[in-house]
Amino acid sequence: MNKMSKACNIMRLALLQLKGSKDKLANLENACKKIQEAVEKHQPRLITLPECFNSPYGTKYFREYAECIPSGTTSQRLSQLAKECNVYIVGGSIPEFGENDKIYNTCTIWSPEGKLIAKHRKMHLFDIDVKGGMRFKESETLTAGNEFTIIEIDDHKIGIGICYDIRFEEMARVYRNAGCEMIIYPAAFNMTTGPLHWELLQRSRANDNQLYVVTTSPARDETAEYVAYGHSMVVNPWAKIIQSAKEGEETVIADVDFSMVEQARQQIPISYQRRLDLYETVKKC
């Protein structure tokens, strides 16, 4: 039986930090194998995968590796595994063939019945030019999504973002205002921004909104064209890191206590002390 006790408000998570390659089917089968292993060994309620887990991360690859959702091979396998393993799967992200020949960076979320309960299209595209660091423009290939995504598991609301979305506090604030107790960000920070901001941003979003922040990164591969930073992480509502991976392929297990969300919000009641007469995040989900 999957680990979720309503009495004690504990949910077990498994974060799969996976090493990828240019072999799409091999990437998918590795993810499926790790899902099965995590379920057999740890019985999680929720499993999360990395950003672009079935493809290399790069603008020249997105269209080549893109699939339709939910009819594509990756969606079908995740649906099958979620049902067989009786687990929720936040399917990292994959390049998605959308309407009008558009390509999106999309996270799919699957129920223990194998149903697609939501999908999140990355809202903020990673277009940066760091002097002496790196240049990357997702908008050369991808289209930005326009919808907030909230799922509900065992009466707990969870917001979904993808990678660069984590830099935008307003987006996290919308999720907080909608009652979310956790935000999950599949993410592939690089070796320029990772050491500077990876931990900082997660702890900041958790602290700002008094909720759990969960990130799942690809494992680091120094031979890849885009080198991911790694360090998949779970941060609690007090901005404390409760679990973190290292650089390589790894499964991170964390038991999340949702009662800590209300505890933090009661003891430091910033949601009631905000000067809404002066400022407000007004967007609604």
Automatic annotation (TrEMBL):
Residues 11-38 form a coiled coil. Pfam families: CN_hydrolase. One of its GO terms (biological process) is asparagine metabolic process. The keyword Hydrolase applies. Transmembrane segments: none annotated. GO terms for cellular component: mitochondrion. It catalyses: 2-oxoglutaramate + H2O = 2-oxoglutarate + NH4(+); 2-oxosuccinamate + H2O = oxaloacetate + NH4(+). It comes from the Eukaryota. GO terms for molecular function: omega-amidase activity. Keywords: Coiled coil, Hydrolase. InterPro entries: C-N_Hydrolase, C-N_Hydrolase_sf, Nit1/2_C-N_Hydrolase. Its EC number is 3.5.1.3. Residues 11-258 form the CN hydrolase domain. PANTHER family: NITRILASE-RELATED (PTHR23088), OMEGA-AMIDASE NIT2 (PTHR23088:SF30). Belongs to the carbon-nitrogen hydrolase superfamily. NIT1/NIT2 family. This is omega-amidase. It comes from Glossina brevipalpis.
